[in-house]
Design a protein that fits this description.
This protein is of the alpha/beta class. It has 13 helices and 9 strands. It starts with a helix and ends in a 5-residue tail after the last strand.
Length: about 280
């Protein structure tokens, strides 16, 4: 009987340690009295890659798409890449193939080379981040995703940080790469940062350890994000709920593409990223 009691105690201790380890791994940054800091971003609808329509001459991540979002009073979600000559450009994909019909990687191109091509047979070209900042000029909040390569992560973060110092508008950043968020944790902790994620078991045929950790938010120990930006079809992940309910992390949901989906999740998110319709 004593042996059974000791075994039960050992198992209980082990489970307690495991649960504590899980909480340590997934815990976001714990902020006190941060309501004022979050106020400019809360309960906004963010136009995914601008208020675009790729079928009708307003390409995603283009200046007309961003202008349309500002004119309609929507926040803007956009994507930032680093060129080989250290320029920040606003584009989603790693390559120009889908949007410019050119099989070239942004990371291997200069800004001048990128400017040779237009978006989806329009006259619009891939804008620089500075051009977008000048257009928006603080009129709506920005949700900026950093698209990072492993070997250029720190360089992109440094250049982005320097660029944003002269911007007077409100912005927050997010990335799938926890190392980019870690850079800001160490160097620019005042900037609100978010871990982008989804259920990579559904997205990838072979989910490796890194993607598994990002799926379950176990990479949070590196970056201690302020908010979680999760795919809306996957957001009932228990680790997302623990972050939001227990640790009070803010939640952004992406990418809502119908009014029915919007109505279904609007009360469960602090920020909604939408596309293909207007809420």
């Amino acid at each position: 009987m004593k042996k059974l009691s000791k075994l039960t105690q050992s198992i209980t201790h082990l489970l307690t340690l495991l649960f504590g380890a899980v909480l340590f791994l997934i815990c976001p940054r714990l902020m006190l009295n941060h309501q004022k800091k979050w106020a400019p971003f809360m309960h906004w609808d963010y136009a995914h890659r601008g208020l675009h329509d790729n079928m009708w001459g307003v390409p995603e991540n283009s200046m007309p798409a961003f202008k349309a979002a500002v004119d309609k009073g929507y926040g803007i979600e956009l994507d930032v890449h680093l060129t080989v000559d250290n320029e920040l450009v606003v584009h989603h994909d790693d390559t120009l193939y889908r949007m410019c019909h050119v099989e070239r990687d942004i990371k291997d191109m200069t800004l001048k080379e990128i400017r040779q091509y237009t978006l989806l047979s329009t006259d619009e070209k891939i804008p620089t981040l500075q051009e977008v900042l000048d257009l928006v000029d603080g009129r709506v909040p920005l949700l900026i995703e950093l698209k990072t390569e492993a070997h250029t992560c720190s360089r992109l973060c440094r250049i982005f940080s320097k660029t944003m110092r002269s911007y007077n508008g409100k912005y927050i950043l997010e990335s799938f790469n926890p190392l980019a968020l870690r850079w800001f944790r160490k160097n620019e902790p005042q900037i609100l940062r978010g871990q982008l994620s989804c259920n990579f078991f559904k997205e990838k045929p072979h989910c490796d350890l890194v993607l598994f950790m990002i799926t379950v938010l176990a990479s949070n120990f590196l970056s201690r994000p302020d908010f979680i930006s999760y795919k809306y079809t996957d957001y009932k992940n228990p680790m997302v709920r623990i972050n939001c309910l227990l640790f009070k992390a803010r939640l952004a949901l992406w990418t809502i593409n119908t009014m029915d989906a919007y109505d279904a999740v609007r009360n469960n998110a602090d920020m909604i990223i939408f596309e293909g319709f207007e809420p």
